[in-house]
Amino acid sequence: MTEALTPDAPVISDVSGTTGQTPENPAAGVQLSPEDVQTAVHAIADRSRKAARRMGQANRAWKDRALRAIGTALVENRKRVLEANAKDVALGRANGTSAALLDRLTLTAARIDGLVAALENLAGLPDPVGNVVRGQTLPNGLRLRQVNVPMGVVAAIYEARPNVTVDIAGLALKSGNAVILRGGSAAANTNEALVQILREALDSVGLPADAVQTVDQYGREGANVLMRARGRVDVLIPRGGRDLIQTVVTNSAVPVIETGEGNVHIFIDESANEEMAVEILLNAKTQRPSVCNTVETLLVHSGATVLPAVAKALRSAGVTLHVDERIASALGKDVETVPADDDDWATEYMDLDLAVAMVDSLDEAVNHIRTWTTGHTEAILTNNLANAEKFIADIDSAAVIVNASTRFTDGGELGLGAEVGISTQKLHARGPMGLTELTTTKWIVQGEGQIRA
Fold first, then answer.
1. CA 29 – CA 46 distance, rounded (Å)
2. pLDDT at residue number 373
């Protein structure tokens, strides 16, 4: 604890979990008044702000030690995490949770290994804090620098995604922030275990445990207070389905980075290669259908020859094809399909379902996408360079892909180490949000007595 940081001894708050029966540590099943919940969540946010000041001063070596300590702790506590997750999954099944949400909820040994690998990747990435965005010396001698600095207190509201607990915490810590988590009731047991492990790991390397906190114990009212905690929380990031995201965007007084649903499109033009089209569609639809970068609508040029092969491969993989009349006619009785309507073009299935339409031109495909897109990811499969360039120019989404699976719209796959989410808005951050997107900037002006004329 000697390098580039000489703080007071860290203030560690309740590293081992919640005990007792107070507004800040309610006993299980105890109902607190809205006033008590507000007091408790504000206290959490105030501790987070204090921890954020400490994290903002920590150098890269210290933060990287924390990330590696978290990775080691996850490996050492793998059984504990999996047992907690098994309880959540069992409750989810009993409550009729959809297969897609159960998939997102489930942690396996391999997925925990993936989280550990992501933490190691983060530790290997440059520290964005202090990075000089631009600088110059003015004619009057003033020396200017615009540098990246931490956001401060980052809050996240998400559902049935325990991997997000680790991903967001890791990104927040590496970028010098403190984080407050609301992971939802579906993953309550898993998130409780993970937050405790994260806090213990931070404490073990001399960083404040309060850099990672949760308001899960306060349920929906806790989330509501968090959304209203402007001045205590610097930015709020929702991750989940459309209803959750729009609830946060509509009701939050805290600035929100909107992560959007993924009504993702792939357009196969008439020059597309059949083997490539089959492999990409299978990967984009079936590798993990419950995630936001999975393709949901396939547009096929009327002159393309690959439709039968692609449709048969998708059906063999268990995908239900929701098709327009022209696709149904082209496939005939060789491939089983169901009729599509406007609801299908607007739907993020997050399951083994795919809407399929036929178009007569690239312009028609672009118009369809513009009508129904959520601005997440769109792809074109083509051997025509001019078509690829036109598609790139005409499509206004966070990610545009040529001849590759939409599953690559992911922070880890794009070299960011992990991601907080995929932003579909245009302010501050767009697309997969990594370390730099969890920083803001400040101007440093250095002079030698200059005054303004």
1. 25
2. 94
φ, ψ of residue 45 in degrees (nearest 5): -65, -40
Task: State what percent of residues in the chain have pLDDT above 90.
Answer: 79
Using DSSP's 3-state secondary structure scheme, residue 88 falls into helix
- What per-residue string of b and e applies to 67-99 under the rule 16 or more CB within 10 Å gives b? bbbbbebbeebeeebbebbeebbebbeeeebee
Residue 381's nearest CA partner among 406, 398, 348 is 406
What is the C-alpha to C-alpha distance for residues 145 and 135, in angstroms, rounded to an integer? 4
Burial of 220-255, coded b for 16+ CB within 10 Å and e otherwise, reads: ebbbbbbbbbeebbbbbbbbbbeebbebbbeebebe
Contact present, 217 and 174 (Cβ < 8 Å): no
| pLDDT tens digit sequence for 186-197 | 999 999 999 999
Per residue in 264-310, pLDDT (tens digit) is 999 999 999 999 999 999 999 999 898 889 999 999 999 999 999 99
Whole-number Å distance between alpha carbons of 89 and 111 = 15
CA-to-CA dists, residue 399 to 119, 325, 378, 392, angstroms: 24, 30, 7, 9
Token readout for 79 is 């059984």
Q: Which helix (H) or strand (E) holds 348?
A: none
The DSSP H or E segment spanning 333 is none
**pLDDT tens profile 30-82:** 688 999 999 999 999 999 999 999 999 999 999 999 999 999 999 999 999 99
What is the bridge-based pairing of β-strands 422-423 and 431-432?
antiparallel
Sign of the four-CA dihedral 268, 270, 271, 275: positive
Quickly state the pLDDT bin for 29 (edges 50, 70, 90): low
d(CA 23, CA 30): 10
